């Protein structure tokens, strides 16, 4: 059996990695950009009409919009173009000026709101109308979530706003290095921070936590947030082929690629793939595969599983 190497795998799955990373870190400002991106998605991830691929992509977009709701409208447009989903275009009325000033990090627009008699930076924002990774955030936490460093520094200076664990978590999504650095002075990162780093799809944050704080990657978070880069970094370190084969099956868009490369890595320890197959496919298919298992060697058995379970 050969070793698992990060560079070999990430090259094979670069299209998937590129699309998912751009979905989680969406930064689109024009109709032309979103139209071009839709075509890329169709060509790279939806090049056939298989329902499980469409469902997987819907799940990716649903996860992505919660941690990057600044671009919620564009996520809605993507879903409309890709899946013919309709939506009501009346959400702009929900964006009040204080919230918009934070999203835009417009501190000059933000300051007058802080001078009102009833202002409290701990006041919770109402996110009922758009998806968010955390349902209730206060004004200071919003600055961390959106990476609004100017508003963040203003609240720290004028109100001595307290940096909480939630601020640190959200700073990984906001992606502003100055906010994150400040939060790290007051809060110690832990496994939950790694989850948010994986969710952010910023591999630099993931490796930073690994190297500086010795926090391991949770492969279940990689699956949950569709982060194939962090997934491969994990297995590059563990070289656990059985766990790799089982867990890679939770990326439906990659099954065809998996078929082409796994023969280079497989040995006779096939139980992991069987467990994954049982979770993902109907009982009658598994039964027929298990019967075939008794008739052939391990290499042929893997081919049968991959062809019958993950490709058809």
Automatic annotation (TrEMBL):
Signal peptide (residue range): none
Any Pfam family hit: DUF3447
Domain of life: Eukaryota
Domain DUF3447, chain residue ranges per copy: 159-233
InterPro entries in alphabetical order: Ankyrin_rpt-contain_sf (IPR036770), DUF3447 (IPR020683)
Coiled-coil ranges (or none): none
Matching PANTHER family: ANKYRIN REPEAT AND SOCS BOX CONTAINING 4, LD18443P
UniProt name for this protein: DUF3447 domain-containing protein
Lineage: Eukaryota, Metamonada, Parabasalia, Trichomonadida, Trichomonadidae
């Amino acid at each position: 059996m050969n070793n698992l190497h990060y560079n070999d795998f990430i090259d094979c799955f670069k299209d998937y990695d590129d699309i998912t990373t751009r979905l989680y870190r969406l930064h689109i400002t024009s109709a032309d950009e979103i139209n071009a991106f839709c075509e890329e998605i169709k060509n790279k991830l939806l090049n056939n009409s298989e329902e499980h691929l469409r469902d997987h992509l819907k799940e990716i977009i649903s996860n992505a919009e919660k941690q990057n709701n600044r671009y919620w409208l564009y996520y809605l447009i993507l879903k409309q173009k890709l899946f013919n989903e309709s939506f009501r275009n009346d959400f702009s009325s929900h964006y009040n000026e204080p919230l918009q000033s934070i999203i835009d990090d417009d501190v000059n627009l933000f300051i007058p709101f802080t001078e009102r008699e009833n202002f409290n930076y701990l006041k919770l924002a109402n996110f009922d109308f758009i998806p968010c990774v955390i349902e209730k955030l206060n004004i200071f936490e919003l600055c961390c979530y959106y990476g609004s460093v100017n508003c963040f520094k203003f609240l720290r200076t004028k109100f001595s706003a307290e940096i909480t664990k939630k601020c640190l978590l959200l700073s990984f999504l906001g992606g502003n290095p100055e906010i994150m650095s400040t939060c790290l002075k007051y809060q110690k990162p832990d496994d939950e921070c790694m989850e948010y780093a994986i969710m952010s799809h910023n591999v630099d944050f993931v490796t930073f936590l690994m190297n500086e704080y010795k926090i391991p990657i949770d492969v279940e978070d990689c699956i949950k947030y569709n982060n194939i880069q962090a997934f491969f970094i994990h297995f590059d370190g563990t070289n656990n082929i059985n766990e790799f084969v089982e867990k890679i099956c939770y990326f439906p868009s990659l099954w065809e690629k998996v078929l082409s490369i796994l023969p280079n890595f497989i040995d006779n320890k096939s139980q992991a793939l069987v467990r994954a197959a049982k979770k993902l496919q109907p009982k009658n298919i598994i039964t027929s595969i298990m019967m075939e298992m008794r008739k052939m060697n391990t290499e042929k058995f893997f081919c049968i599983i991959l062809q019958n379970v993950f490709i058809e």
